[in-house]
Amino acid sequence: MKYFLFQSFLFISICCFSGCKAQSTFGENYLQIAKRISLSGIKGRIDHLDINLKNQIVYIAALESNVMEVVDINNGKVLHSITGLDEPQGIAYLPQNQEIFVANGGNGDCYFYNANTFDKVATVKLKSDADDVRYDSAAKKIYVGYGRGGIAIIDAVSHTQAGDVKLPCHPEGFQIDTKTNLLYVNLPSSNLISVVDLKQLKLIRNISENYRSGNFPMALDSTGDRLFIGYRYPGKLVMMNAKSGHRISVTDLTNDSDDLFYDEASKRVYVSCGGGYANLGYINIFQFEGGDKYKQIAGIPTRNGARTSLLVPQLNLFLLAEPSVYSQNGELVVYKTQK
To answer: Which of 23, 117, 130, 308 has the lowest CB atom count within 10 Å?
Structure first.
């Protein structure tokens, strides 16, 4: 992800100097704040989150502080900070092993930690820039985007690399379709979405989009064969047919999106965006209306730069990590999702 910092800065500058489109605040009834949990020990940018559903423990990659925060959302407090990391980015909780997996963007190393003692139990070394992570719990495989173009497949039981897929450039957000054994990957520096056959561990197709910038987050509706792609600058939500790659619709989105989720039960799309109007971020929510139509039903203001989030449909929660700003500590904001 660090390969794109300069690119992101450039697009932000362009947007700021060309004038920002005002954002509307509406639909706040769809997310109700349950609590705010202070993250006083971390500064700067925050990357991805994951959760231990049984114990309701959230793991937060504090990239610029080189730590992972372990947060009890029931009691509203930080339980532990795992230090000694190097730009932690992707995180996965492995319930069968009771372990936490962390991908480090700085040195490319991937660490396994015991989730009870927080002791490091294993390391898998990748070449560089280990980034976003997906865990297939049925197959017990961890997928890690890394380097200048690769997806590493790591065996969660043996703690060893079991495979590798070569890509044209560094991958960002990606999703696994276990129904078809396909992996969809965002390649923002090439403006491509790549399709990978997981049985062959081979890139089989590239889908080209004509947007200039930043296809970072992605969500998949496997039941409807739809992909949702978030573009950063200008902010756009693109819905496409996952089988054909045909674009179905394009909708305006707040700038600087980084996490995007599809909730199958409510047929809603949630997107956390860091760069809105008047130094605010926004959570955008879209509702399926039938056919191929999605309508935005909420634009909820957040702290500037708050683009990292996690939808937890099993608990009716949406979690947002707000970075520290000036004298304000970082916070984990716990929202209850509403019908």
So the answer is: 117
